[in-house]
């Protein structure tokens, strides 16, 4: 029998089931095992499923572990990603599509991989990608939380719990852009694009199952606000407390303020 990862604590915050681990590696391994179990279960009753992925260093351990799981029928899974910088073409190493292609999209045989192209006319790209999602309801969403409480690129200044769009263009706030430097994705803030395409909050919350992976001390304050603060757009991630099927995974550092 496969040994389960050691969980330090399991808690509930409204509808969120929270699992806390001692290390990032244990967190990522366990999240991947849970995700694989969910995906296999969905595929027992559906011909194919649709999964949306976040692109950030916080997802590294999880994506590495998930891509290594052999007994998932990847050929019945359609892959999407939730945000992309405007101005970056497909395959740009600074792009989110490039990150995900390197971490998982290019490592397992998905039925389809649907990439946002930041180099296209952004209005047309929003329409194109939104149509894809409307035609293929999201079954599973894998996401993180930003240092300012954002999910995808829904920063507090542009988050809208009642957004009528599924994909939109946003101007990134300074805290969000600084995080990209903190994460080592760019050498300085001047290199970080100011505009991006993003899945909206209703789009993300439209997923049937949410797996939220949030390691690291720099995320501790955002985690606390998400789980214990008011549910409103000042901390966009707080909306997850209203979702029926969400599990959040923390390491000891991101959980330190709880």
């Amino acid at each position: 029998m496969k040994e389960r990862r050691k969980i330090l604590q399991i808690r509930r915050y409204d509808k969120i089931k929270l699992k806390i681990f001692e290390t990032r590696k244990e967190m990522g391994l366990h999240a991947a095992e849970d995700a694989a179990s969910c995906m296999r279960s969905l595929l027992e009753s559906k011909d194919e499923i649709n999964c949306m992925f976040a692109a950030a260093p916080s997802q590294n351990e999880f994506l590495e572990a998930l891509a290594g799981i052999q007994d998932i029928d990847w050929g019945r899974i359609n892959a999407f990603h939730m945000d992309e910088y405007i101005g970056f073409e497909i395959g740009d190493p600074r792009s989110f599509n490039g990150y995900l292609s390197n971490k998982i999209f290019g490592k397992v045989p998905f039925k389809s991989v649907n990439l946002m192209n930041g180099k296209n006319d952004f209005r047309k790209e929003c329409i194109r990608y939104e149509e894809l999602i409307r035609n293929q309801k999201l079954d599973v969403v894998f996401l993180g939380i930003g240092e300012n409480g954002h999910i995808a690129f829904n920063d507090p200044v542009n988050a809208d719990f009642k957004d009528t769009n599924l994909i939109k263009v946003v101007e990134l706030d300074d805290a969000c852009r600084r995080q990209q430097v903190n994460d080592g994705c760019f050498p300085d803030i001047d290199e970080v694009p100011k505009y991006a395409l993003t899945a909206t909050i209703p789009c993300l919350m439209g997923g049937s199952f949410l797996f939220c992976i949030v390691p690291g001390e720099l995320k501790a304050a955002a985690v606390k606000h998400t789980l214990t603060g008011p549910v409103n757009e000042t901390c966009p991630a707080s909306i997850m407390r209203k979702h029926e099927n969400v599990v959040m995974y923390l390491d000891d550092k991101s959980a330190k303020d709880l």
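Residues 24-45 form the longest helix (22 residues). The chain has one domain: 16-251.
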